[in-house]
Amino acid sequence: VDLIAGGAELGLTGPVIDLGDTLVVPGAERWLRLTAADGEDLGANPYGAISLVRTNLPGNQISFVTGGQLIIAPVDAPANPTAQLPFTGVDYDLAPDGERIVVSDGRTLSIVDLSGAEVGTFPNPEGISIGSVVWQPDGSILFVDLSSNVVRSVDPGDAG
Q1: What is the rounded CA–CA span in Å between residue 65 and residue 127?
Q2: Confidence (pLDDT) at 141
Q3: What is the pLDDT of residue 123?
Q4: Residue 156 phi/psi, 5° resolution?
Q5: Closest to 83 in 3D by CA, of 112, 106, 44
Q6: pLDDT of amino acid 142
Q7: Gap between the terminal Cα atoms of the chain
Q8: 20 to 30 A from 116, CA-CA: which of 35, 45, 81, 91?
Q9: Is the sign of the CA dihedral 87, 91, 97, 100 positive or negative?
């Protein structure tokens, strides 16, 4: 077994991002791309620890949360974001077209554009506790209602 990249100095700062035939690794100082054949240094990691990684974005991009920011960046250059916006939620997902983001703060679902501007909010008069969110390919948004442990669906067009 040959060591392609890493060692104790790598210092993982988040989950290894599995893209099928490629792994993207957030190290303490560098991003690495690993394939079955070799490894590639993708540049500095200015973010530190990352979480809430998403890989289902159009345009060969990934997204993740770090230091109160939601980052959207190319897989090949994660340190060069195409969008960076404030994030104080508990979960998020991107629309299938990659142009809008649904954010759960635990009490509300909001839709924001890539600049971070809110374009809609779903009312929550029942005060349910909202967990994970997923923007479906058909355009609907699924979320976990933690108050009753069921999955609910909303239409983005109903956001006020």
Answers
A1: 26
A2: 94
A3: 79
A4: -55, -25
A5: 112
A6: 94
A7: 56
A8: 45
A9: negative
DSSP assignment string, the chain: ----S--GGG-B-S--EE-SS-EEEEBSSEEEEE-SS-EEEEEE--S-S-EEEE---SSSEEEEEETTEEEEEETT-TTS-SEEEE---SEEEE-TTSSEEEEE-SS-EEEEETTS-EEEEE--TT---EEEEEE-TTS-EEEEETTTTEEEEE-GGG--
Please name which of 96, 125, 92 lies closest in space to residue 110, comparing C-alpha atoms.
92
- The pLDDT value given to residue 74: 95
Bridge partners (DSSP) of residue 109 are 104, 122
State the pLDDT at residue 89. 94
Instruction: Spell out, as residue ranges, where the chain has pLDDT lower than 70.
Output: 1-10
| Tokens describing residue 22 | 């490629």
Question: In whole angstroms, what is the distance from residue 56 CA to residue 44 CA?
Answer: 23
What would you measure as the largest C-alpha separation in the chain, in angstroms? 58
Tens digits of per-residue pLDDT, 17-62?
888 888 888 888 888 888 888 888 898 899 989 999 999 888 889 9
In order of start, what are the domains of the chain with their CATH numbers? 1-86 (2.40.10), 88-160 (2.40.10)
